[in-house]
Structure formats: structure tokens, C-alpha cells
Design a protein that fits this description.
mainly alpha, two-stranded antiparallel sheet, 2 strands, about 220 residues, about 5% strand, flat
């Protein structure tokens, strides 16, 4: 508490804080707060998230099942496709900059300006010196970022079926994503194994469609 002219003034005055919070915020900050539930009123809804995830699963796996040769050819060429690596890593850079600019950093808040400068430098260095399996590493990074939003949407929500989203996030995005970043050659090996027989391919594609359909039904009925 500070004293000036015989009157008391709180350093963290409640009306002052309210006025600051009421000021218009940048568009990207609103987007970040909505995706990661930083707003007091909440963020992206569980139902909306589940529907988007479900439709993506159904559409992606259904396309892979109906266009087997085309999809398998793309997947086999993907790990060493530098062009896709640049595209995905650029998306990851923008996403990471959004998070760094507005996320809560606790006692490390003073490092924010440094991170905002170092991350673009690291991006350029990776493009130049880490060309091997760049697409896989970039995809792994994006998988981790996507998983964060899904987990936030499902966190502490009442329906027990919400656990379908965390299960998907950890088993299909977080754990594989970590391996893709650190051991990217594993993606090449996993693709070779899945595409080796028609039965494996059918199980993988139709399994994805079924899981997406299950999430969609739960979203429409219970969320």
C-alpha cells in the first residue's frame, strides 16, 4: 500500500484492474485466450471441439480408405518431403509465437521478449541445418500443439465420455508426436508396417472412422 497526501492508494486497486481488463485486447490475444480457456467466461466448448475432431477423423480416414493407392504413395513420400516440412514448420512457428506472446509464464515472464526473438532464429536454423526428416519433426510439433487445445476443451467437463478426447490426444498425438520430433525415422517405419498388408490398412482406416463416429455421437447426444 502506498500513501500520498494523507490518502491511501492500493498498488493493485480493484477498479483500476477492472478498467485495464476492460480495455480492448488485440485480436490474437482474444484468439489465444479462447483456445486455451484463459478468459474468465471460458473458451472453446467441448462440443464444438469434439465435432471438429470427429469430422476430421471420419473425413481423413474415409478418404484414406477410398483412395488407398494415392494416400499410401503420399505417406511413403512424406517423411523426406522438405516442402511439406517448410509448410508445417511455418504453421508451427506462427502457432508457437501466439502461445509465447500471450501464455502465462509465471516467474519466467521476463524471458518472454527473449523467446519471441529466439524462436524465429531457431526456425531459420532448423530450415537450414535440420533438413533430414523435417516434415516428420514439424508434424510432431503440430500434433503436440493440437493436443493442447483438445485437452483444454475436455478438462474437468462433466460427461465421462469426454475421456475419448484425452485418450485420442495422448495415444495418437502426444506420444507419437514426441517420437516424431526426437526419432523421426520411426514414422517411416510405421508407415511401411501399416501399408505392408491390406488388412492392416483396412483396420487403421476404418478404425479411425469408427472412433470419429463414436466421438461425433457422444458430442451430439451428451456434450
Amino acid at each position: 500500500m502506498l500513501t500520498s497526501g494523507g490518502s491511501n492508494f492500493r498498488l493493485y486497486d480493484a477498479p483500476l484492474v477492472r478498467n485495464i481488463c476492460a480495455r480492448p485486447q488485440p485480436m490474437f490475444k482474444d484468439l489465444h485466450d479462447y483456445l486455451y480457456h484463459y478468459n474468465p467466461t471460458g473458451g472453446i466448448a467441448l462440443k464444438s471441439t469434439a465435432i471438429v475432431v470427429a469430422l476430421a477423423l471420419i473425413a481423413g480416414h474415409l478418404f484414406a480408405w477410398l483412395h488407398k493407392e494415392r494416400t499410401q504413395a503420399f505417406l511413403k513420400a512424406f517423411p523426406r518431403n522438405y516442402k511439406w516440412g517448410v509448410i508445417l514448420l511455418s504453421i508451427g512457428l506462427l502457432w508457437a509465437m501466439l502461445c509465447i506472446a500471450y501464455m502465462h509464464m509465471g516467474e519466467f515472464f521476463y524471458l518472454r521478449p527473449w523467446f519471441l526473438k529466439l524462436v524465429p532464429v531457431a526456425f531459420v536454423l532448423v530450415l537450414i541445418y535440420v533438413k533430414e526428416f523435417l516434415a516428420v519433426r514439424a508434424l510432431g510439433s503440430l500434433m503436440l500443439l493440437v493436443a493442447g487445445i483438445v485437452l483444454e476443451a475436455a478438462f474437468l467437463q462433466p460427461p465421462t465420455t469426454r475421456l475419448l478426447l484425452p485418450i485420442l490426444a495422448y495415444s495418437a498425438w502426444i506420444i507419437p508426436g514426441l517420437y516424431f520430433v526426437g526419432m523421426p525415422y520411426l514414422m517411416r517405419d510405421w508407415i511401411a508396417w501399416i501399408t505392408a498388408t491390406d488388412q492392416r490398412w483396412k483396420i487403421a482406416t476404418l478404425g479411425g472412422v469408427a472412433y470419429g463416429a463414436l466421438i461425433l455421437v457422444c458430442a451430439l447426444v451428451w456434450y
